[in-house]
Amino acid sequence: EDLIAMNALYRPGPMDYIPQFIARKQGREPITYDILIMEKYLKDTYGITVYQEQVMLLSRLLAGFTRGQSDALRKAMGKKIIAILDELKVKFLEGGKKNGHDEKVLEKIWADWEKFASYAFNKSHATCYSWVAYQTAYLKANYPSEYMAAVLSRNLADIKTITQYMTECKHMGINVLGPDINESQQNFSSNKSGDIRFGLAAIKGVGEAAVRSIIEEREKNGAFKNIYDFMERVNFSVVNRKCMENIAYSGGFDSIIDFHRSKFFAEDARAAGSQVQFIELLMRYGQRVQQEKVNAQQSLFGGGSMVDIQRPTLPVADDWNQLQLLNKEREVIGLYLSAHPLDEYKVIIDHMCKAQLTDLEDLEQFNGQEIAVSGVVTSVQSLTTKTGRPWGRFTLEDYNGTREFALFGKDYEKFRPQLYVNYFLFVKGKVQPRPYGDNPELEFKILSMQQLSEMRETIKEVHVTLPIEEVTPAFVDEFSTHVRKSKGKTLLRLTVTDRSVGTSLNLYSKRYRVELTQNFTDYLDQNEIKYSVS
What we know:
Elements: H1 2-9, H2 18-25, H3 39-42, H4 52-63, H5 67-79, H6 82-98, H7 103-116, H8 123-142, H9 144-154, H10 159-171, E1 176-177, E2 189-190, E3 196-197, H11 208-221, H12 227-233, H13 241-250, H14 278-298, H15 322-333, H16 346-352, E4 370-384, E5 390-397, E6 402-408, H17 409-415, E7 424-433, E8 442-451, H18 452-457, E9 461-467, H19 473-485, E10 487-498, E11 503-514, H20 518-526, E12 530-533
Parallel strand pairs: 1-3, 9-10
Antiparallel strand pairs: 2-3, 4-5, 4-7, 5-6, 7-8, 9-12, 10-11
C-alpha cells in the first residue's frame, strides 16, 4: 500500500508531500486531518490526499457532490479546465458549509487539491505501475546481469542510453564485454560468469539473418575452434565481407585468433603488388573448402577424399596502435569497449578534474566556480556566421558521456589549434551567466585548453599514503618493483600513518622519481593505495 502511494506521489505537485508522508509513516509527525471525518478515506495514506479517487470520495463526503459532479471535478482538475473548476469550487464551498464545515478549512482543502490534482494518479493506475516497479526491482536485485542485459537490449539503437546503462552496470560490479563470435546472442545476454556480453546485432552492418545463421551453426555443430574453422562453416550467402569486417573491427573474432585484429586488414609485405587483405584470403579459403565439400558429396562415385586446400598464412605487417584499434571499435559499435583512449590519462582525470562532461548538464551546481573537464575530441566543425565571421563547434567524450562546445570570435581563434579529432584535451572554464539577455542562462566559459600529454608533464609530485599495518615485507618488495619499473621525473613522496598512536612519518628522497604510467596508476588503484598529485 505504501509503495503504491509513493509511486503516485512521485511527480510534480504531489512530490512536495513526500517528506510529510514519510514522517507520518515513521511516527515522527502526528497524523492529522483538516476535518475529522476525512479519516474515512485518508487513513491508509496517513491523512494526505494522494489519489484521484480520494478527491472524488471526499467531495461527496464533505460537500454532498453527486457521482457525476465528483467525476467532473476529477476531469476538470486533471485537464486544468478553469471555468469548470471555478463553478465546482462554489458548489464545494456551499455544500461544505451546508454540512457544517468551516469555510476557511474548505478553502484550504480545495487549494491543496488544486495544487497537485492535475498530476494525480488514480489508484488503479498507480497499482499497475507499482506492480511493474516491484517486479523489476526484484529482478534487478536477484538477477542483476540478466535484468541489465534486457534493459540494454531494449535500447539497442540508442548509444547515449546504452552508455548510461553501461555506467550503471559498472556501479553494480557487472562487466559489459564486447561481442564474441562464440558467446554472443543476437542482443545483449548474461553469460555464465554473471557478466553481460554485447550482442552480434549491436555491430553495425551485421544483419539479423547473418546473426541467426552464425548462432544456428554454432548451436548445431559446436563452438568455432579458430578463424579457419569459422570460415569453413559460415554461410557466405548471408554473411558477406562487410559483415565479416565489422565483426573483426569490433573484436568479435578475438577469442578464436592468436593475432592482432588489425591483421585481418593487412596486405602481406612479402607478396608485393598483391593488394589482397588477409580477410579476403580467409574468405576465399572458406569458400573453396565449402565448394570442395559440395563437389565431393555430388561426385558420381560418392564420398571421394577432399583436396587438401592450403590455409592462408598470416601477413607480415605492423599492428595498429591502441587509438587506431579503439576508433575502429567505436566506428562499428558506437562506443569504446575493450578499453578507453583516456585510460592513459586517468590519473589527471581522477585527480585534477572537478567534473565529468555529463555534470555540465546541471551548471547551477557550479555557478561562479572554475572547473576542469577532460576528454577526447570526437568531432570538429569549422563554421561561418551569417555576417561571415568564423566560429567552431567541437565534441568532447569522456568515460561517461559527451558534450558539444561552441567557440566564437577571439576564443575560436585562440583555441582553434587544439581542435583536431583524437586530440586529448584538459579544458578549464568558468560557470557564469551569459553576458546577454534579461534572464541569462548559465554557460561554461572556456578559459584554457591544454593537451593531456602536456598536463601529465606538469605534475611535479605524487604523494602516496600508507597505513603502517599494510607496510609488510611482501608489500615493500612489490611496491619497490613497481617504482623501479616506472622511473620518471615525478617526485615520489611517502607518508606512513599509524592511527593507533595518531602519528605519521613522511619519507622522500629526490632520487625516487616515477613516471605516472597507466601500469603504475593501475597498480595503485587496484591495490586501493591512496595517492594524490600536485
